[in-house]
Design brief:
alpha+beta
Length: 119
Amino acid sequence: MYSSSDFEHLFIRYKAEAMPQGESIQDFCLKNKVPYNLFHKWYKDTRHHIVPVQVEGEPVDQEPEQPLSTSAPSLGTSFSSPPMRFMIDIRMTGGMHIQQRNLSYEGLKNLVEKLEVLC
């Protein structure tokens, strides 16, 4: 039995690997031993549940990370805050669930770019 997550991963792989080569989704399903009729039903049931997401604002540029020294800091030295990390948890009514943890800003940008392909 295939889960919604299985079909979601298959669809993302298709968009990244086979679609740019001009391969049909039917051929891709056949090559991956997934019944096309089940994938097609999942796609019909979930395609309208995907909604575009708009991110507002812009992150502040951060200085490149410097290696931590093992010596104790001298007096008058200020501590810098660690770089910001993101955790994304998207759940949709069609059963699709996307979760990513410990993302840097670059990782978050890459995730959004990949999700745009689904829209």
